[in-house]
Amino acid sequence: MSQLSELLSTNYDKNIEELKELLRIQSISSLSEHKEDVQKAASWISNKLKTIGMEHVEIIQTKGHPIIYGDLIHKEGAPTVLVYGHYDVQPVDPVDLWETPPFEPTIRDEKIFARGATDDKGQMFLHIKAVETLLESDGSLPVNIKFCIEGEEEIGSPNLPHFLSENKEKLSCDVVLISDTDMWEKGVPAITCSLRGLCALEITLKTANSDLHSGMFGGGVQNANHLLVQLLSTLHDANGKVNVDHFYDNVIELTDYEKEQMAELGFDEEKLKQSLGLTNLTGGEKDYPYRERISSRPTLEINGLWGGFQGEGTKTVIPNEAHVKITCRLVNNQHPEKIQQLVKKHLEENAPIGCTVEVSLGDTGNPFLTPIDSPMMQTAAEAYKKVYGKSPVYKREGGSIPIVSDFNKILNAPVVLMGFGLPGENLHAPNEHFHLENFDKGILTICSFLELIEK
Amino acid sequence: MSQLSELLSTNYDKNIEELKELLRIQSISSLSEHKEDVQKAASWISNKLKTIGMEHVEIIQTKGHPIIYGDLIHKEGAPTVLVYGHYDVQPVDPVDLWETPPFEPTIRDEKIFARGATDDKGQMFLHIKAVETLLESDGSLPVNIKFCIEGEEEIGSPNLPHFLSENKEKLSCDVVLISDTDMWEKGVPAITCSLRGLCALEITLKTANSDLHSGMFGGGVQNANHLLVQLLSTLHDANGKVNVDHFYDNVIELTDYEKEQMAELGFDEEKLKQSLGLTNLTGGEKDYPYRERISSRPTLEINGLWGGFQGEGTKTVIPNEAHVKITCRLVNNQHPEKIQQLVKKHLEENAPIGCTVEVSLGDTGNPFLTPIDSPMMQTAAEAYKKVYGKSPVYKREGGSIPIVSDFNKILNAPVVLMGFGLPGENLHAPNEHFHLENFDKGILTICSFLELIEK
């Protein structure tokens, strides 16, 4: 262990430079103008895997962005670990709120700032470095290893489930290891045992056949913005509950035991409010405590809305179109496709008089829940303890990694979510960063896990 | 008259080419990147006035865009007519809805399509051509004439009232003549006797100190879009009335006589709905008929709203900012500044828990009402009758020309609003146009008015 640690110290500058190289690539999967950048990131990963000694490395084209596969299978009888991660990133707007440009990685206060620093390039890179370090130190790995790194996680992994189904043999493994989640807090590791699912919808509301002048028509004809407000105001009730029929039908409430555990862990509400610049935390359902709302309750969020004039100055226009982007976070046992249909139905049925409402359905992803007492989970806990000196918290995560549930079901293998991010690292927001204290420690924890499951 | 008519026929192609030149200039007053274009339009007007023989032509700089003045005062004892118009135009977005580019004037179906074709470059240009034609025909004008053409009408004429106050002597006149309004319908002229006023507000709603990831915070923290919807849903009641305290306090209801006149004129609701692509006309106050709502009732319109992600694909963001642009159309005797304060107060008092609401106040303009039996109004009616063969309708206009009330009050002169636009010419919207049948007829009507008031 100390030998690995020394090796990492020696290679630290080189390793960080390599990470920066990867972070510079603008691999935004949701924007078609970045298609080539996404390919560039795929090539980068593929070359890196070859360089560290992985075999059978290939860039596998899909209908969307490519998947990278590579393996090193030399330990007959030893367990096989499949590492999953993603090299695509979220868009960067509003770009003017970044203190340093999103694709110019910059180190400040022992954090590295860049889009993808923590989600997920930074965390995925730890696995590449763990393998490289073990090989450099011992000449071989204690286990068999496979990499499966995709470029469509941020758009809901539309092509990965098919790829998994078609390549069950190739990807067969004893455990799927993923680092795309957070620790509990600075110095306190966590293993995520639950993830929320997701579904997305986009709405276009239309009135007249063109924008109209409010001097000629104001007070007479429908304003798309007004009708949009009317429609959207039906989506939540006064208590913050989602006001869509049957939305909560399949939600599994937390058990009393889980609620107690959550209470024991404590929660510094004042600190959180201060860090977010908020005087209160009144989003979502009033009847549930904050930590439960963000982890084990479903939501419906308006991620974007727009209609009419957004330019400088005044324009006395009656807009004839308005738009909304919605995503729902879902929990066990909600079905993403079913929820999409319920929300669509609600929007269509509540469309105000005088407009048409078109609803298009977007990405979906299943929620995930895993038992915390499985052998692989326990081994992961041991690895964390060795490096961080503390047992990890078992955490319900509010985010979605839709593919986790697919890995679990299609490959019939346990999934271990070993996160090295920290809360507040601004993923999906301006000034995303990763705390560098978890760089070498993250690599060591992964090395330790690989060594421990060998036994 | 027939001599003028022949002269106009002879010069038609040249005149249209000149108008096209003016329409090509992108003089959007509200966008700072078009500042030079606005100056260019000012120079164009100034040169044109000199070319047709106007004297003392000057481009007068203001704190914003310049005013052009010119006069021809050779008829001692004859009335003096002050012509007002504006050479600035509205923005052009959404630009992809224009069938031909907004600044490439194109003639189709005897209409000229371009931003400013009817509002107001096209109509203002008729006065230049009327003076030129009379001078070419008779060698002199029947009256004294002054031009005052500004470049800030579309942003609420912030500098014109001051200019009028400071130049009362220079601008003194017996009548102010303005063409920036519509006829009743094809072939039926109209004189506008009332205009609505205007006030604008812009709202920024803020929650956390940055955008947040809905996976980490969804269900826990306030979403600026949700709070915006909540806030905006308080602005109108279920009957479409503006739900702001004291909003209607100073509104003068139509008299029974005016209501009868409005009913007599008739209104083809089906035709209007068809032309707008609407199945019903349910904007504004349910308790008032359509034509009353768009002309003599005040409104509050959300001209623009936006918050969060508008790009391609999905972004699971909880936006921390949302924005709204509002304008109110006002009627006699509402005070624009007072209404701004009432709306601001409403927005601040109804700000949902968990956000800050900043309201900034924009343009204002007074409503206008003039007696229809004044001598100048009657002369204008006669001029229309000579050219169009029909007496004009006296019309309450839903639009705003804030400066009209100022001309009336500051220069203490009657204002005659002699419009040559037609309803449906898409001013402030894509595919703005002007019906060319009113080009020569408009010029002739103006010539006729100048000849008739001489007597």
**Regions of chain A with pLDDT < 50 over 5+ consecutive residues?**
none
The radius of gyration computed from the alpha-carbon positions of chain A, rounded to a whole number of angstroms, is 23 Å
Task: State the CATH topology of the largest domain in chain A.
Answer: Aminopeptidase
Structural class by helix and strand composition of chain A: alpha+beta
Oligomeric grouping of the chains:
homodimer
The helical percent of chain A reads 25-40%
Work out the strand percent of chain A. Answer: 15-25%
- Name the CATH homologous superfamily of the largest domain in chain A: Zn peptidases
Shape of chain A: globular
CATH class of the largest domain in chain A: Alpha Beta
Q: Give the count of helical stretches of chain A.
A: 14
Overall pLDDT confidence of chain A: 94
Calculate the terminal CA-CA distance of chain A, rounded to whole Å.
16 Å
The figure for the number of domains of chain A is 2
Q: Which architecture of the largest domain in chain A does the CATH hierarchy give at level 2?
A: 3-Layer(aba) Sandwich
Major sheet details of chain A: 9 strands, mixed
Strand element count of chain A: 18
InterPro entries (chains A, B): Bact_exopeptidase_dim_dom, Cyt/Met_Dipeptidase, Peptidase_M20, Peptidase_M20_dimer
EC number (chains A, B): 3.4.13.-
Domain Peptidase M20 dimerisation (chains A, B): 195-353
GO molecular function (chains A, B): dipeptidase activity
Summarize, please.
Chain A has 455 residues and is of the alpha+beta class. Helices cover 35% and strands 22% of the residues of chain A.
